[in-house]
Amino acid sequence: MELARRIKEHRERLGMSQSELAKKVFVSRQTISNWETDRTYPDVQSLIILSGLFGVSIDALVKEDSREIRDALATGAKKMRRLGAVAAACGLACLTWVIVGIVLDLNIAAIAVPAAALFIPAMIAAFFIDKMRHDNQLYAYQSVEAYLAGEDPEVGCRYNQRAGRHWVARRVVQTVLAVIVGLCCGWGAAGIILRLVEG
């Protein structure tokens, strides 16, 4: 996209590093790098700040790119939905297998090996979803929802920026809790089914 080239050219014209520009636009240096390498694109608020810093209109920055930006949004949203479907299907299949294995009174290895084979793709898909969220700075639920709808996710808004702090630590805690809850639900559901079958 031309926008990536224009951002880099204007930044270099002003003699600014990516880090310096990032501070002025209130984003990370990695975000500037992503914009300049065409991996992601700026939200509306960032475009307003960039146009003011560079002394050009927003139209001059994004002309010829608006269609490409919409297409990039649509493509990213489709990919995120597909990854979500894979994660949900594999996670549900894993949970179902654990319940079936317990009901059938299979040994732990017979339950764990297939369950792991189903759980690993779910975790890989979830990892790529999180990577897309991080690369596009989609930390708040509202930003993800807007992104999936093909709208401007407004990553520069205060709520999204606040949600981005301690993002990695929160994801680790959420993953550990999800595994614990999943195991508890699996064992609990299997116990109830066993009682119903035996009783």
UniProtKB/TrEMBL annotation:
Q: Which SMART domains match?
A: HTH_XRE (SM00530)
Instruction: List the keywords (alphabetical).
Output: DNA-binding, Membrane, Transmembrane, Transmembrane helix
Which regions span the lipid bilayer?
83-102, 108-129, 172-197
Q: Which domain of life does the UniProt lineage start with?
A: Bacteria
Q: Which Pfam families match?
A: HTH_3 (PF01381)
Q: Where is the HTH cro/C1-type domain?
A: 7-61
Q: Spell out the PROSITE patterns in the cross-references.
A: HTH_CROC1
Its recorded name reads Helix-turn-helix transcriptional regulator
